[in-house]
Amino acid sequence: MSNRELFVLGTASAVPTRRRNHNGYLLRWDGQGLLFDPGEGTQRQMAHAGLAANDLNWLCVTHFHGDHCLGVPGIVQRVSRDGVAHPVHAVYPASGEAYWRRLRHAAVFHDTADITEHPVEGGGAELSGEGFTLTALRLDHGIEAYGYRLAEPDGRTMLPEKLREHGVRGPAIGRLSGPLLEECSVPRPGQKMAFVMDTRLCDNVFALAEGVDLLVIESTFLDSEERQAAEHGHLTARQAGRVARECGVRRLVLTHVSERYTEADEPLFLEQAGHPGAVLARDLDRIPLPPRRRTGD
């Protein structure tokens, strides 16, 4: 099982369908779980996916339209009910503080959840996780919305043949430095993931997606509704594909599909995206990050 994997819990936009639940995406990143935009039904979808409240370390809300946040009350209450002992970091637009409070305390329950709140305002924020940074950047939607970018630091990959050649083994490997370290290893770019929901095309969409291994991005509409997409602050599949190509994205995950489209329409999303690494997400898909790459790959 991959230690870095996206669990797709829901892929609908404003209205769920028989085949698509409201939004919900859990990224398993080593020992951390980051849940993005839990809509209605997220608890049950997590059960279907074999996930539990203890798998959650971060709860990231892009904006406070219902399909992106109405699952928050159930998630928060489940964290308490299941006795999750570790803190859960909650990231959300500061302008929606009143909505966050209503969702956080939407019903009566025995509240034992340890939730550390990180309201984001202005141009965005950068937060530190365990082995990664989480960056939030402002998007262009009808209300204040943020996209997220997760990145681990660059590192180095050891070359076993070079280590043997220099007789370096065991704990001595961790103490290598200077020219010998450079000779016995090669640069390894840190893995990166971006999450972009409701927005028109804007500079920060490209900034979030630049060079990521995995881009989860809304593609609410096809070309036939491009005008409506712009009016309502959304992207088309073709625009999502353009972002992925221009930013060197390795794996593109299209999601947040309007209820107007049928199963017969789905091949058009991939056709219009025009990206070789694209998938159209379906509920309960599990999508691993691509394998690590070295500098120059």
From TrEMBL:
Residues 21-212 form the Metallo-beta-lactamase domain. The keyword Hydrolase applies. The active site is at D67. Gene3D superfamilies: Ribonuclease Z/Hydroxyacylglutathione hydrolase-like. Its cofactor is Zn(2+). Zn(2+) 1 binds at H63, H65, H141, D198. It catalyses: Endonucleolytic cleavage of RNA, removing extra 3' nucleotides from tRNA precursor, generating 3' termini of tRNAs. A 3'-hydroxy group is left at the tRNA terminus and a 5'-phosphoryl group is left at the trailer molecule. Homodimer. Zinc phosphodiesterase, which displays some tRNA 3'-processing endonuclease activity. Probably involved in tRNA maturation, by removing a 3'-trailer from precursor tRNA. Belongs to the RNase Z family. PANTHER family: ZINC PHOSPHODIESTERASE ELAC PROTEIN 1 (PTHR46018:SF2). This is Ribonuclease Z.
